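Backbone geometry:

***
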Amino acid sequence: MSMIANLQYGWTLFVNPIADKHHWTKPAIQVAFTIFVLVETWLVPIEGWLVDKYGPRVVVLVASVMVALSWVMDAHANSLAMLYFAAAVGGIGGGAVYGTCVGNALKWFPDKRGLAAGLTAMGFGAGSALTVIPIAAMIKSSGYESTFISYGLGQGLVVFAMAWFLRAPDASFSVAPAKIHVKNVTTREYTPTEMLKTPVFWVMYAMFVMMATGGLLATAQLAPIAKDYGIADVPASLFGLTLPALTFALSLDRILNGVARPLFGWVSDFLGRENTMFIAFALEGIGILALNTFGHDPVAFVLLTALVYLAWGEIYSLFPVTCADTYGRKYATANAGFLYTAKGTASLLVPLSSVIAAGGGGWRAVFLAAGTLNFVAAAMALLVLRPMRNRMTARGAA
């Protein structure tokens, strides 16, 4: 998971060098990133089905080749079409690794699903932290092409090596029911087709889209917001450190976004999925609205964006574990993959933030929209999802 993190989080380091060499516009270059996100999310159900049918090892071995090939192709891309194709290849490889690892965590640890899925997802959320500085340094010293090739091959080789250690639990694997504290855990194994026919899935899907959209609307535009507030370069002092507000926020946010995944996953193992969702979703809504009111202060900006990221990162642990609780272990990888496509759906809505901000409401309207989505999702967790899952578990079928 850590080896595929740079496919998403390290991409921004290459945009300016690519633009400088080829004189392509940055929006045109960033289409490649959009393609990556869409392919990385929307093909996970197919990749998950392959994992459930053939096992995790084969799928990740193939994915390792695509992970390496993607950045090697980026290094040699002399047209936007080739850059876009490389992004699609990377999306397939990255999505296959992501879906497989999260799905395997759900299968191996049914008594600690929240913590296991959260720790696994943290590898992707924080996996690029140690390589950001080395990649930036190598781009400066050796050029972006050499960096793409070196890190692409290196990341692919590590994924290839680790794939040999992956396996799924066999049919005889089980955990004593007494060890499972979470309620509403199904005893039936739902196939993806059966799952898609249940209303509970679509309620979770709608909530996932709301949360992903709400978080992205408030955070994807962090730099423009800080600039418009006039605090991007204003020093903020916290924890004995003094950094420009935007730099401080970006550094702290990445850490908390990673920590949120195992933290809230672990809490949900004891407090329950919907209760934890309500707390996290409401916290993010409060953080977003407070950012609208107090965000012009550099220290408040750093702290409130940190709160938003902390309460947002958990969607990548809470939703897959709730899916596995509801639909069983056997097809957990494919089923969680279908739910994960909500991230891709949400990414299509993110450009609305620029449209809304450009309108009469400015960033205030963006924050109000994002906060509202969070509060609606929080209410749905307790008032809609929990009673529906209660009924579904009670009668053993949807």
User: Anything to note?
Assistant: The chain has a mean pLDDT of 87. Strands lie at 235-238, 241-244.
